[in-house]
Amino acid sequence: MPDNEAPEIDTSVPHSARIWDYWLGGKENYPVDREAGDAVLQVLPSIATSAKQDRAFLGRAVRFLVKEGIRQFLDLGTGLPTVDNTHEVAQRVAPESRIVYVDNDPLVLLHARALLQSSEQGSCDYVQADIRDTATVLEEAAKSLDFDRPVALMLLGVLNHILDDDEALRIVAGVLERLVPGSYLVISHTCDATTDELDGEAMRQAVRTVMERGGTPIRARSPEEIERLFAGTELLEPGVVSCSRWRPDPSPWTEPEVPHFCGVAVVRAR
Ligand SMILES: C[S@@+](CC[C@H](N)C(=O)[O-])C[C@H]1O[C@@H](n2cnc3c(N)ncnc32)[C@H](O)[C@@H]1O
Fold first, then answer.
1. How distant, in Å, are the alpha carbons of 81, 129, 147, 204, 227 from that of 103?
2. Residue 232 gets which letter from DSSP?
3. Pocket (CB within 6 angstroms of ligand 1)
4. EC (predicted)?
5. Which of 89, 186, 208, 236 is the most exposed place for a label (fewest CB within 10 A)?
6. Which pTM does this prediction carry?
7. How far is the CA of 129 from the CAs of 21, 38, 52, 161, 199, in angstroms?
8. What distance in angstroms lies between residue 103's CA and the mean position of ligand 1's atoms?
9. Tell me, what's the pLDDT at 62?
10. Distance CA 200, CA 220 (A)
11. Residues 101-111: pLDDT tens digits?
């Protein structure tokens, strides 16, 4: 799309990025998104905490990866820029970090141009694409990432929009086959686990609420189903857990579980 052409924003149906932004306390959302967001909050009040815990997990995961020597990030399903995006967390510690963001929502595109400001030493690029089109994603990402060096593939809150298991696996595998050993895979995903703290049925009801409103199609997966998305990689401790429980920062209290699970895995030599 030419630079001077504004992307078309559909404000008649709720969009995933905008509802997520609403739950995170952002302002880039419309009445239709807030209504859908509130309807979900009615059946699943913990969902807003999920969005915040997902972001906190992103921060801890990126800091861990930078410590492991990772300087390249391919972040699929960017969402609307908010505080502490992948590039901000990575470049704060390692300014030379290179980040490529990919999303298919035109509103994300509109804001990405203005907000994804890189450090001088590193780079930060945005690709408007559907993550199902892995060939385009890789071709565009290769313009700024060096695929002969390790890359962290970040899929936060986006594979829950790929309803078919085989398709989700194909997307992950399609990108992973380009990544060299020593690369990483980071996933977070809406989860319908039932535990002492979580009610899987409330999450399924929340998903039905979004679907009925014609929002971005979404599905929750069980922890086992999320773990399967890590096929071909070595899942690191503590495995697939609630975002609030993935290597939490030291604190006198334990954060409650949220119905958004995550994991980090390393790509070993094949
Ligand atoms: C819930 S938001 C998550 C944002 C961010 N990754 C985070 O965790 O805070 C999901 C994002 O995925 C994007 N998305 C959904 N399906 C997509 C697809 N098929 N291709 C590209 N982006 C997609 C949405 O537009 C939205 O911005």
1. 11, 6, 20, 25, 23
2. T
3. 16-17, 20, 54-55, 77-79, 103-105, 108, 130-132, 156-158, 161, 216
4. 2.1.1.-
5. 208
6. 0.95
7. 20, 29, 25, 14, 34
8. 6
9. 98
10. 9
11. 999 988 888 88
pLDDT tens-place string over residues 119-160: 999 999 999 999 999 999 999 999 999 999 999 999 999 999
CA–centroid distance, residue 71 to ligand 1 (Å): 22
Cα distance between residue 101 and residue 261, in whole Å: 21
Contact, 80 vs 243, CB < 8 A? Answer: no
Residue nearest to atom 16 of ligand 1 (CA): 161
Mind listing the domains of the chain with CATH numbers? 16-266 (3.40.50.150)
The per-residue pLDDT for 10 is: 86
Q: Is the pLDDT of residue 2 over 50?
A: no
Average pLDDT, rounded, for the chain: 93
Q: Are strands 260-266 and 184-190 parallel, antiparallel or unpaired?
A: antiparallel
